[in-house]
Amino acid sequence: MTPSEALEYIHSRPKFSEKPGLHRISALLELLGKPQDRLKFVHVAGTNGKGSTVAMSANVLRASGYRVGMFISPFVLDFRERIQVDGEMIPLLELARLTEKISRAAVVLERNGMNPNEFEVVTAIGMLYFDEQHCDIVCLEVGLGGTYDATNVIAPPLAAVITAVSLDHTQILGSTVRQIAQEKAGIIKRGSTVVCYPEQDTEALGVLYERCAEEQCRLILPNMRAVELLESGLQGSYFQYRGMKYRLSFVGYHQVCNALMVIEVVALLRQSGFHISEEALKTGLETARFPARFEVVSEHPLTVVDGAHNEGGAKALSRTLRENISGRKMVAVIGMLKEKSHDVLLSEIGPLCAKIIAVPVGSPRALPPELLAETAVRYCPDVSVNYDYPSALEAAAKTAGREGIILVCGSLFLAADMRKILLKS
User: Fold this and answer.
1) Which of 77, 129, 306, 408 is most enclosed, with most CB atoms within 10 A?
2) Residue (of 319, 288, 313, 321) closest to 407 by Cα position
3) Distance between CA 77 and CA 289 in Å, rounded?
4) Sign (positive or negative) of CA dihedral 165, 171, 176, 181
C-alpha cells in the first residue's frame, strides 16, 4: 500500500456508523494486540480549546525529556498532523504500512458484521504508532463527544481534561449544553482525576460534578482567584498563577484558562512519577504553537487566521479582538459550513467589522456565501460576496489599509486554505 492508497483507504471509510459504540474499535484493537493497553494518556474532551490544551501539554512533556505522542482532530494543513511523536508527524511510509495492517484486520471485522468508520481507523493507526514508538505518554484529543468516541477505548487515563463546553455538533451530541456535557463527561472513568476548564458553563459543570461523584473521581477546577494577568496582547500573555509566572504565545484570555488546566495536569503527572521541572513547564507553555488559533500570519495589515466556528469559539474570538484591536479598522473574510450556527458567529464578530467578505468553503457541506451575506448585513453595514480567495484577501487588504486588521474565520477548512495562500505571499 502506497501513502496515497493509504489516505484513499482511510477517507473511503464511513464517516459515521449507524450504531454508536466502542465495540468496533475495541474489536479492531484486540486484533492488533491491544496497543492502547501499553500506553499512558492525558485524555482531552470538550467543545473548544482541546487542540491548544493538547499542544501545550505535549510541549511541556517534551521539554521535560519525555517521548510524547500527540493525537489531534481535525488537522489543518496535513492529515499527518493528527498523529505526531515529539512534534514530528507520522512519516508517510509508516502511515502506509500501518494502514495496510489495519485494513487487513478490518476485513476480519467486516466478515463479522462490523464495519470500522474513518475515525476508528485513524485512532487505531495512532495507537499502533504510539506503541511502536515507545511513547512515555500520549496527549489524546477526543474526536467528537466522548462517551462513544473511539479514543474512549482506553483505560482510565492519568488525567481526564474537560475544556470549555458549549453548543456544537448539536445534531449529533444534543441540543442543550447539558446534553453535550453528558457526552463529554463520558471520558470520566473511575481511577482517574478530572481537570476542568476554570470558567466552565455552570450547567456543564453540574453534569461534570455528577459524573465525578458517580465514578468517585476527584475534580480539579483551577482557582481563578490565584491568577493575575500581568500582560496581554497580540504576542500572547504573561500571567502569574499561585506565585509562579508564565508566558504564553497563544493569544487571548481563554488560552490563559487553557494553560491553567495544563498546569494542573502537570501537578497530577508529577504525583504519578513524571519528573517535570518548573523550568520545563514554563518553557513548554511559552513555546507551544498550534495553527489557526488566533494565528498572526502577517503584520501589515495585521492578518489573523482563526478556526472559530461555534458559539464558544465565536465568543472567545470576539473577546480577544475587543481587548486587542484598539479601534483599528477590521475586515473579516468569513466562510462556514451549513451545520454551524453562522448567526452566532456573525453577531459576535460583525459589530467589530468595517466590512465582511463572505466566501465559500472547500467542502460539500459549505454554506453558500450569499446566505452568509444575508445574515451578515444585520451586524455589519458593508458586506460583499467573493468566490476567489486571493481576490477576497486583496479586497480585504485594500479596505483595512496598512494599519488595519484582516480576520479570516468561520471554518477550519477555510483557515487551512487561506493560510496556505497567506504564508506564500
Assistant:
1) 408
2) 321
3) 14
4) negative
The 3-state DSSP class for residue 68 equals strand
| Distance from C-alpha of 79 to C-alpha of 416, rounded to nearest angstrom | 11
Specify the 3-state DSSP secondary structure of 386. Answer: coil
Q: How many CB atoms lie within 10 A of CB 113?
A: 6
pLDDT digits (tens, 9 = 90+) for 329-370: 999 999 999 877 789 999 999 999 999 999 999 888 899 999
Using alpha carbons, select from 3, 17, 328 the residue that is nearest to residue 172: 17
Residues 6+ apart with CB under 8 A from 19: none
DSSP output for 71-127: E-SS-SS-GGGGEEETTEEPPHHHHHHHHHHHHHHHHHHHHTT----HHHHHHHHHH
Q: Classify 61 as helix, strand or coil.
A: helix
Q: Distance between CA 88 and CA 359 in Å, rounded?
A: 33
Cα separation, 73 vs 120, in Å, equals 12
**Pair 309, 411: CB distance under 8 Å:** yes
**Degrees, nearest 5: CA angle 395-398-400:** 105
Distance, CA of 170 to CA of 187 (rounded, Å): 19
* Residue that wins the pLDDT comparison between 210 and 298: 210
Q: 3-47, pLDDT tens digit by residue?
A: 999 999 999 999 988 888 999 999 999 999 999 999 999 999 999
Distance from chain centroid for Cα 165: 12
> Residue 301 burial (CB < 10 Å; 0-12/13-18/19+)?
buried
